[in-house]
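To whoever is covering the structure queue this week,

Two jobs came back overnight. Logging them here so there's a record in the thread.

Job A:
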Amino acid sequence: YSRYCNNHSSALAEYTILNQHMVYTIFFESCRLLKDMESIPLDGYLLKPVQRICQYQLQLKELLKYTSSSHPDHAKVKEAECIMSSVASTVNERKRRTENINKLALWQSSIEDWRGEDILVKSSIMIHSGSLYKISAGNKQLRRFFLFDRQLVYCRKLLGSGKLQYKGRMNLDQCQTVDLEDNSEPGIVNGWKMENQAKNKWIVLFSKNNTDKSAWINALKEERRQVELDSENNFVIPEAQKHAAYVQVRRSNSTRSKKQNSFSQKYKSTSDLRSSLLADKTSKDVKSKSNKKLKGFSNKMFLKKQKKLAHLHD
């Protein structure tokens, strides 16, 4: 049911595309007439299952309201209301997560030198992010970390451009978080260790203060809880939707790139741009002066006519 609701927006988009062709419009209408169905467009019928989730919940709440606690059906009605409330929450969460994958695909496209599998292969939500110090093989490095379900990605901020460059990631399904007491390792305060048991590797991470550390530890616990919940609910993003998200990002980036190239071709240097801006300003100043002259001329003509009329009246 929730998968149908998640796919509802994609189904509507497909229906809109097909409905632009007369052959499909006639086909849909013919099917409706053959089954003697109400005069409602197909998109209206597609919406009905989505609406029913909320309607069932509201009806059960109303039924529970008028069912006495001593009635033999009270417990069953209450249980049914709780189940439908849970279903509605699950559907809303899945819809939010499904819509969120476009943002993740866009985020990945902004990272320089991305390597390995796409972010959407394992993840569907960003849980936390921030700057942390990373110690690996004795080297201390400041990195920008992004916590997703099932993986932790870290990047380096490039000087000048301010963009982020991909440096690595950790598979959290194979990692264990170990809290470190302050100075349990030389110079490490507000830190913890991430151990990759499968590869027998580890890194030490530490934050600038204890507040940031607490936020990260809680976020890592939330990540494990989210993964477990997704497993229980069989939550999976359809491959078609992942593909559609990357296609949309590529189109968006292509449009932006064309606009930038067009701008670059028109203004090949900063001096060309400056000259164009000055020309526009000069043109505006000339128009402004011209308008002022016309306005002054109009005022003079108006005054002359007034004097002439006053003279004739006298």
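Job B:
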Amino acid sequence: FTSTRDDNSIIKYREYCENNSLKVIIMLAEVKISLASSLLAVIINHLLPLEYSSLISTFPWDLSLFPHSLPLPLLLKPLELGLLLLLDQTHRLTACTAYLLGFLFLIGLQNSAAPFGLYLTVLAFFHLSEFVTTGLSNPQNLSFDSFLVNHSWQYGLAMLISWVEYFIQLWLLPEVKLSLPMVSYTGLVICLLGELIRKLAMLQAGRNFNHIVQSNKADEHQLVTSGIYSFCRHPSYLGWFLWSVGSQVLLVNPLCLIIYGVVSFAFFKERIYVEEYTLIAFFGDQYRQYQTRTGTGIPGIEGFHGPVMWGEHQD
């Protein structure tokens, strides 16, 4: 009986390993497709720019000339779209999203003399790198949601508000908005620092990192306290906090800088509180000792230090 049970366990373990290996291979293919699609957007649109300013004047309003008088880059757009649609159905959404992010990155880069151009570059790179880093560090959990482009309606609203402030101030005070390049460059440095901290945290955490707070401890979950995690308990949140605030410094948005700072602080304070509750339940005294010697990374946020109702041993 024991031998049969051991054989069954071995078979199940092999099946588990094979399924996970297959999933890893599929997810790594998703990463390659996302990188290829974004590079396709950058290379094609850089080598064959659309010249948007002259597009209206060159458009063949005389339909008898259509489509021969259209600019070559515009004629190639259906071909680009067709290449993406030739992919398997499971990869199309990834490819199209990555292509659009690459296109947005290029537009920002070509207009980087203006704060909003720099902002578009930083924004596109953040979302694309979230997907790629997740695929490299924790491929089992890679999905379309890893782009974070559909993070929440609050995230989209906050982004829209920052755009409104930027363009209203650009309209009313263009000389002020465009005459502070050092402020924008400072914001860019803050964003890049936030990116570096967050991506290092994701890569080092590996399979222990997830965009969603976990309520159940998986067998492979380990408490990571070395490397960048020896400096702060939540480097990924610190990185995102810096990126969020830095984006408004980059845009020279004084109102949104305050709003983003306050809202981001409140969001991460609640998020860290909830996450640390589960971490104490998962790791008990091991995590409490980690708390005593390492801060959260965001000044003013202490995390959870009370007793838990499940998981950890209670008298």
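Note for Job B: The two ends are 39 Å apart (CA to CA).

Please reply-all if you pick these up so we don't duplicate work.
Q.
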